[in-house]
Amino acid sequence: MSPVAVTTLSGPGGEVHIGDEHPFAIIGERINPTGRSVLTEQMKAGDMTNVQADAIAQVRAGAAVLDLNAGIPGFDEPAMLSQVVKAVHEVVDVPLCIDSSTPEALEAAVLLAQGKVLINSVTAEAHSLERLLPLVKKFGAAVIGMANDEEGISMDPQERLAAARKVVEAAADHGIAREDVIIDPLTMPIGAAGDAATAMFETVRLIRDELGVNVSCGASNISFGMPDRQGIDAAFLTMSAMAGMNTAITNPLHAPVRSALLASDLLLGRDAFGSAWIADHRAKSGTGTPGAGGPGGSSSEAKPSDSPPER
Questions:
Q1: 222-247 pLDDT tens trace
Q2: How far is CA 110 from CA 10, 32, 82, in A?
Q3: Which of 8, 50, 97, 129 has the fewest C-beta atoms lying within 10 Å of its C-beta?
Q4: CB-based contacts of 291: which residues, under 8 Å, 6+ apart?
Q5: How far apart are CA 245 and CA 142, in angstroms?
């Protein structure tokens, strides 16, 4: 497996490195109003109670980065996303992944974010590259590029590679370093396409070998519509890590997912002397601090509410 460039993000608490020699970087997915009625109503009212609770809980559970989404139809996304960024910075110090395809929202939110952020995301479509890559360069950010273009999402790994190449080359044209580009090959539901996972693993290998960049995904898409989603997600992430994926947007509060990624780090030689695995075991047995051994761990207390449907 060819080596990839290391992606470095930063927040008030320091840097997070994404690459082969570093632990798998969990990007916490929960601060997203999609499918979460209570969170949506709170955000509409300017109440950041659950936003902050979810931020603290995810970091305690091992999230190295937090994905922030404020896309509520009919509401002022730039103002709301800015409010979310400020609220999250009040309670945790990890790097942020600003999740919007709206330039105005990105402009407003990234200006308030402390450190080097990850922008999620651009596609390989010309209009997306032209609108968003200049902002990535302007703010010195890293970016997630989606492996789909005007032709849509293909199940063919070679076609996904071609779309990913468009993103990497366009980023280079805008002066964005290769290490600041992470590609998302786009995870499809295994219940709808039997080759969704195998196509993904092959695409990960191709992108790494041909383009030399890190690869991420929205991991829980793989299990959409299936029973025992956490079990599927855990297995999928373990196999993705073996294929060369070093980061993913997922839910660290799901115990099977968290354990699978810790075990993957241990078995792939990224957890020296098993320190993170042992710390997590002690935390589960009541003899340590939850999340203490994982990336972005914190001793803050929080009990998240309004749990979303699994996704």
A1: 999 999 999 999 999 999 999 999 99
A2: 13, 17, 8
A3: 8
A4: 59, 60, 61, 62, 280, 283, 297, 298
A5: 17
